[in-house]
Write a structure and sequence with these properties.
Chain lengths: 237, 1208
């Protein structure tokens, strides 16, 4: 009986297996990258009901973060301002601007289209429900907004600048010194440790003047007894 | 592969001879019980039944089909979903998003209001804690803890009903207007809580409606007690007990720690601790109080008693008489003595038969008991007190008042008679009479009771109510009374309304709303206030259209103003606490008015009282002349620890919390003693007393062989109880320590069923106004039709029992998660045992376990004591696992733990623990993170003075049956011990359970893949597994859990609002367990971290020059409390930082420190011990041994205080 299958078919299963393996692996690698927060989240920049411009309010006008995110030092959540906060200024400034229409609908009872419905801001930074991140714990210990949110003061439309993956959290929790800064500079998003050291003379425990940003971070970590935890219950409860 | 079974060591000879058990199964060492011991979850809890598997397979196929069809779409729609942040329009004052707000409020309660601090998140009340600033604040009960769930009850009434059909608010307002216009002979029926504003409005209503009459009713308050107190101390008087002043307590069927609350639990615990409260000193046996208990069925108070006598309910009076006579004989002549003697002379002496029944034929023992008790009380005169159960008749209460007078208990002593505001309310019996005789034609029912359901059958309340031409019911539920009334008005919960209340000692406390009424409920005060003001409206103008008809207001006033109830409360407050804003704001902030309390009662007319006492006594004695027997049983009704008088039947937390004594959940049953069960032949013929069952402790006597498989197929035999033609079909359970010839039945169950059970109202499918919701339906049996007014409504004689041969499935949890080991709970006696003094016994507590005495000391991984074990290479890693700021630990004091379930329910509220329903509980799938183990224990053999077992004719001599039939009851709450050397951690394949630097054994739910290896390896059996998505799928709908995504998801509209936002809601397939309330620890730590900024601001310098030390970061001593600790009514749980030597938990575990050779060692508190110490888990939770303080003159003194629990 003749051979139904030519000789080359002997290695066919192996070839198929190798090809499938490579293809499968490729898909896995591609998907793994694609599914990471780094690919999925960074750069997320939704349109907001009011195109609030941080670069204008913070960068140019010099508004402090805490004017709007008022409870960020006290609460786990950094609150988004209630309509009355916006209205404090905008009842006087550019009240008629069409961009502010949702605010006036929510708050200005004299406005023709007033309906009292609160403004629905689109969430940019989000954590899963099982992550209990606490803003106040970080801000009161010398971690700045900029470490996780990037230079919001330069953003015209806010986008997610960092991945906020668990690895991202742990990088810092394992070596917090790189991100520590004096409490006065926490809300200064343009803080530059080198400049700071040039203008401030800080002595370490032995009485030597601190010269490099690295030394400053290490010094603050020791000085404030910062022991960032890596155990699960720190964030997952 | 079978699990390797740990061979627990032999019990040392001197500790054998005490047998302990949780259930009949354990006593008999049944196979089912062995399975419970050896498995992490009961057999079958991890499997699907054939039927369920079928339905689950089908849904799997459906699901697969659906999901593959959807997957095409899914790829397209694989976009990030947009979510929104919706801030307030105008930020309300005080609310900080993400932070809880605490308000002081009060839970009104007939036994005295409960001062509370309510936790709210963005306006949602989620958790109730006790108000520790309040002089009457001190822990809370399971009922208080669970009352927040009633607010979100999906079955809450939300519609106005007219004759059972939906009507509207406007129609009711019209009807109310008619009533205000032409009130007629109106009757108001209130609850028995003391509400000053209601009392004031009562006065106003009485002037507006001259024919108005007022009544108060709550089914379990006891008419006898009320009548006696009224007669003795004046109308509305109440007797308050202060346990701090009580050295000797005789309780006559008064479960003051459980279902008949009297006095403050913390004060009781102080007396129990004999100077050791707060652990600054050890227990001084001389300072410890002594508790005598006389009761029928075991109660929590009975479990705490040093001496306990089990008697039939009708014999309580005779026993009290015997003790009273001895007291009279023993004291010097005085008016009090004469009075006591005049009361007791009519009581016949206990006859020989009775004595035999109580002490197994040894009549001398009975006299010894009575004499010993009376002498002890008399010796402590001035600091001794006798308490009688509220439900008992006037006769007993009169006698007890005479006894207390003789013991100088009033005034300077533990008791004080006070004048409450409950003056001028008649009883329900008067109401029925007035209705029948036409003095009342309109009834407004405002109280929390359900009189159509919960009054004795022969009162015929329903037919009397039907005679009224108009009846209005205000209530949270559409219960039987709601349906029997013309109008039903949905009520506001106390967390939604303005009101005020008096605590047991009369502290004026405020009730403030946390949220606007969820379903537009009307509060009692709003209704009364509007009725009073509407009287003044010019109705002629309304009719002619000149004036507008008034609107029924609730929650808030017109145009967003404050509710009418607010103004009424302000008005009352102005009269009590002073005019103006300042005192009001202060009282509102604190929750109470400082310095307010009840005035002392003057006392009533003596002659009237004496006459009443004598007639009551004669009547009571003639009714109960014959002692109960096999042919004529006594039936005794009690409050239910879960549903109370039936008002909490729709509360899932309470239904699922097992009864603290019987460990039965979701049902009630008739309880009988093992002997009576045998005589009644409730088990089949072949069931016989097995006198020589072999257990590892030796031979155990006196229990019928169980036919009850106490696992998932647990069934109880059903009997029919017959009292003079009134019948009840009910399952029977054996209750240890129960009096013979008696049956106890908790009331409150059986309010609605779909399965057609006898004697229970049938519910139509899908009826929105059914008397009970999904939670309450098909639970238990209604005992009220058996009750009659004779004997105060809680005792019936002459009952007969017929065994039906039927079985009823029950969810008994007593064997679930049974721990296996030695010396689990430990107990010592203040009396000498085996030539060991109390001090010597205490010193040996930690070594009580069999190998604990010679096992090497456990070395902590986290707090190295300078041992060589962890020296060398590992030493440098020590810092990795050791936090220098916090190391958390807990100590549970079994000496003050009463086993009340308060911690269990508080934990459920705090940690978002779901209920799983009766069927799932029966399978052992309950989710409670704390379980309350309850053991019975009794010595088996007689011992000589050296502790050796006595022999008689070459055999070991058994203790008499009156001892073994009356075992001790030992409760032990068990939650995760946070072992430093945790067996669960080493077996987790995915590192989902790991240790923190602070000594917590944490669980990260999102890593858990549900292998259940950890539960398998946990010697304490504290891990719980989510077999289903209990949080998302309603477990109360039949088979719903097995339907997967096709099941009914909705549990109700609002229960999710109760959730604690700081705790993950776990899903199916995840392990969970106690975390020491890690969310509270983290938030306390984070709060403390703000200190760096605070210090900087204070110093006014640059933050870089401000150091933050370890002490700065340490949470303040004892400032963080776990939910269970906070709820504990006796402060049995201590929790805190073990590195803080000032903390209470530190003192509970150690008495001090000693430095030797440069090494500091802690001196252990001798009463403190670790459970299963010998297996080396180094648990962070330790226990303190129980102490019994028996009276050496009592016949059972040498048998008490030996209840150290060993499992085979």
């Amino acid at each position: 009986m003749a051979n139904f299958f030519p000789r080359w078919t002997n290695v066919l299963p192996l070839k198929i297996a190798v090809c499938l393996g490579v293809a499968g692996g490729g898909v896995v690698v591609a998907f793994t990258y694609y599914a990471t927060p780094k690919a999925q989240r960074v750069g997320y920049q939704p349109a907001q009901p009011i195109p609030y411009d941080h670069s204008l309010h913070v960068g140019q006008l010099g508004l402090d973060c805490r004017y709007c995110h008022s409870f960020v030092e006290h609460s786990g959540q950094a609150n988004v301002p209630s309509a009355n906060t916006c209205w404090n200024c905008h009842q006087h400034v550019r009240k008629e601007s069409p961009k502010l229409e949702p605010l006036r609908r929510a708050y200005d009872e004299t406005y023709a289209n007033y309906d009292g419905a609160p403004i629905k801001w689109v969430r940019v930074h989000t954590n899963p429900d099982y992550v209990f991140f606490n803003h106040s714990a970080h801000l009161n210990r010398g971690i700045s907004c900029v470490s996780c949110h990037g230079k919001v003061n330069e953003m015209e439309v806010v986008y997610q600048a960092k991945s906020h993956s668990m690895g991202f959290c742990l990088d810092c929790h394992r070596d917090p010194a790189r991100h520590l800064r004096p409490l006065e500079e926490v809300f200064n998003l343009d803080y530059d440790p080198k400049e700071y050291l040039e203008t401030h003379e800080i002595l370490d425990a032995e009485g030597n003047v601190i010269k490099t940003p690295k030394e400053l971070g290490e010094f603050l970590k020791q000085h404030w007894n910062i022991q960032s935890k890596e155990s699960c219950s720190t964030c997952h409860r | 592969m079978s699990k390797r079974i740990w061979q627990h060591p032999e019990i040392p000879a001197e500790e054998t001879g005490v047998s302990s058990w949780r259930s009949v199964g354990e006593l008999e060492n049944s196979e089912a019980f062995r399975a419970h011991l050896e498995r992490e979850f009961p057999e079958g809890s991890g499997h699907l039944s054939e039927e369920d598997r079928e339905s689950s397979r089908r849904s799997f196929l459906k699901l697969m089909g659906a999901s593959s069809a959807l997957s095409g779409l899914a790829l397209v729609s694989c976009r990030r979903p947009e979510s929104y942040i919706v801030p307030y329009k105008k930020a309300p004052e005080w609310i900080i998003p993400g932070k809880p707000l605490f308000y002081a409020s009060t839970r009104p309660c007939a036994e005295g209001a409960v001062p509370l601090v309510v936790t709210t998140y963005e306006g949602r009340p989620t958790k109730l804690e006790t108000n520790r600033e309040h002089s009457d604040g001190g822990g809370s009960s399971a009922l208080t803890q669970a009352s927040v769930l009633n607010l979100y009850d999906p079955k809450r009434s939300r519609d106005f009903l007219y004759k059972g059909a939906k009507s509207s608010r406007e129609n009711f307002a019209k009807a109310l207007g008619e009533l205000a216009k032409t009130p007629g002979k109106i009757a108001f029926v209130c609850g028995e809580d003391d509400c000053p504003t209601r009392n004031r409005l009562k006065g106003e209503l009485a002037t507006v409606f001259p024919d108005a009459r007022f009544y108060s009713y709550e089914s379990l308050r006891g008419l006898g007690k009320r009548a006696t107190n009224d007669a003795t101390f004046g109308d509305g008087a109440e007797v308050v007990v202060d346990f701090e002043k009580a050295d000797r307590i005789l309780s006559l069927d008064c479960d003051f720690l459980g279902i008949d609350p009297h006095g403050n639990g913390i004060a009781f615990a102080k007396g129990r601790q004999g100077g050791a409260a707060g652990y600054k000193h050890g227990i001084d046996s001389g300072k410890m109080h002594r508790l005598y208990m006389v009761e029928t069925a075991y109660s929590l108070t009975g479990g705490m008693a040093d001496h306990r006598l089990r008697v039939a309910p009708s014999r309580v009076l005779r026993l009290a008489g015997a003790v009273a006579k001895q007291i009279g004989n023993g004291m010097e002549d005085s008016p009090a003595r004469q009075e006591l003697q005049s009361v007791t002379e009519n009581i016949p002496p206990a006859d020989f038969e009775e004595k035999r029944a109580l002490f197994g034929g040894d009549a001398k023992k009975f006299d010894e008991w009575v004499k010993g008790c009376a002498a002890d009380l008399l010796k402590a005169a001035g600091r001794a007190v006798v308490l009688a159960g509220s439900r008992h008749t006037e006769a007993l209460h009169h006698l007890v008042i005479a006894m207390n007078k003789a013991l100088k208990a009033y005034g300077e002593g533990p008791l004080s008679a006070v004048r409450t505001g409950r003056e001028g309310y008649a009883t329900i019996e008067h109401l029925v009479k007035d209705l029948n005789e036409g003095r009342v034609d309109t009834v407004v029912l405002l109280g929390p009771s359900n009189p159509v359901y919960d009054t004795p059958a022969d009162l015929n309340f329903a037919s009397a109510l039907a005679k009224a031409k108009l009846s209005i019911h205000l209530g949270l539920r559409t219960d039987a009374t709601a349906k029997a009334c013309t109008w039903h008005v949905p009520a506001a919960h106390y967390l939604e309304s303005w009101s005020d209340a008096r605590t047991a000692t009369g502290v004026y406390s405020l009730v403030q709303p946390m949220i606007l009424p969820l379903y537009d409920g009307v509060s009692e005060l709003e209704l009364l206030s509007q009725l009073a003001t509407w009287k003044e409206i010019d109705w002629a103008k309304v009719e002619s259209g000149e004036a507008e008809a008034p609107i029924l207001l609730s929650g808030e006033g017109a145009k967003g103003a404050a509710s009418p109830a607010y103004h009424e409360v302000r008005k009352s407050f102005a009269g009590i606490g002073g005019e103006g804003e300042d005192p009001w704001t202060e009282a509102l902030k604190n929750g109470f008015l400082t310095g307010s309390k009840y005035e002392a009662a003057e006392g009533g007319a003596d002659e009237v009282r004496k006459l009443k006492a004598e007639t009551a006594l004669e009547e009571a004695l003639s009714r109960t002349s014959a002692a109960p027997s096999d042919e004529s049983l006594e039936l005794h009704f009690m409050a239910d620890a879960s549903v109370w008088d039936g008002r909490y039947i729709d509360n899932g937390w309470l239904q699922e919390a097992p009864d603290p004594i019987s460990k039965l959940s979701w049902d009630n049953a008739a309880y009988v003693s093992p002997r009576t069960a045998k005589r009644l032949k409730v088990y089949k013929e072949e069931t016989k007393l097995v006198p020589t069952t072999k257990t590892p402790f030796g031979e155990v006597e006196s229990a019928p062989k169980p036919e009850i498989d106490e696992g998932k197929n647990a069934e109880a035999p059903v009997v029919v109880i017959d009292i003079k033609g009134r019948k009840l079909r009910i399952p029977v359970l054996v209750a240890f320590g129960h009096a013979d010839h008696c049956i106890s039945i908790p009331v409150g169950y059986g309010q609605g069923a779909t399965d057609g059970r006898e004697g229970v109202v049938r519910i139509r499918e899908g009826d929105p106004y059914a008397s009970v919701g999904l939670v309450g339906q098909n639970t238990g049996f209604n005992a009220n039709p058996l009750r009659s007014r004779a004997h105060g409504g809680f005792l019936e004689t002459g009952a007969k029992v017929e065994v039906t041969g039927e079985k009823y499935p029950v969810a008994l949890v007593q064997e679930h998660n049974a721990m296996n080991g030695r010396a689990l709970a430990r107990e010592v006696s203040t009396q000498e045992v085996a030539h060991r003094s109390f001090e010597q016994q205490v010193a040996k507590v930690a070594k009580q376990g069999p190998v604990d005495s010679h096992a090497p000391e456990n070395i902590s991984l986290y707090m190295r004591k300078g041992s060589t074990t962890w020296e060398g290479d590992r030493k440098k890693h020590a810092d990795l696992v050791s936090d220098k700021i916090h190391q958390w630990g807990m100590a549970i004091d079994l000496n003050t733990c009463i086993g009340c379930n308060s911690c269990m329910v508080a934990c459920q509220a705090e940690n978002n623990i779901p209920i799983v329903g009766k069927k799932q509980v029966a399978m052992g799938r309950e989710m409670h993170w704390i379980r309350m183990d309850r053991y019975y224990a009794t010595p088996t053999y007689e011992r000589d003075g050296h502790g050796h077992i006595e022999k008689e004719d070459g055999k070991k001599k058994k203790v008499p049956s009156w001892v073994s039939d009356n075992p001790e009851l030992v409760p032990q709450p068990v939650a995760c011990m946070q072992c430093e050397n945790a067996p669960c951690e080493t077996v987790c394949p995915v590192n989902a359970t790991v240790h923190t630097e602070e000594g917590l054994n944490t669980m990260s739910y999102n890593r858990c893949i549900g292998t259940r290896y950890c539960a398998n390896n946990c010697p304490y059996k504290v891990r719980r597994f989510n077999f289903f998505d209990y949080n998302k799928r309603n477990p109360l709908i039949d088979k719903n859990l097995y339907k997967g995504p096709f099941g009914e998801k909705k549990v109700g509209e609002a229960p999710h609002l109760q959730r604690n936002p700081n705790v993950s809601v776990r899903m199916r397939g995840v392990m969970e367990k106690c975390t020491y309330c890690v969310q509270r620890l983290e938030s306390a730590k984070i709060k403390q971290k703000q200190i760096g900024r605070a210090k900087t601001l204070e110093a006014g310098v640059n933050s870089t020059s401000v150091a933050v030390s370890i002490e700065d970061l340490r949470v303040k001593t004892d400032s963080v409390r776990t939910a269970c600790q906070d709820a504990c009514p006796t402060e049995a749980i201590s929790f805190g930082n073990l590195l803080d030597k000032k903390s209470r938990v530190w003192r509970a575990k150690w008495t001090g420190e000693k430095t030797e050779d440069g090494l500091t060692a802690k001196l252990p508190n001798p009463r403190n011990y670790d459970v299963l110490n010998y297996i080396g888990t180094v648990p962070r939770t330790s226990y303190l041994a129980r102490v019994k303080n028996p009276n050496p003159d009592m016949p059972d003194a040498k048998y008490r205080g030996l209840a150290t629990i060993n499992t085979a």
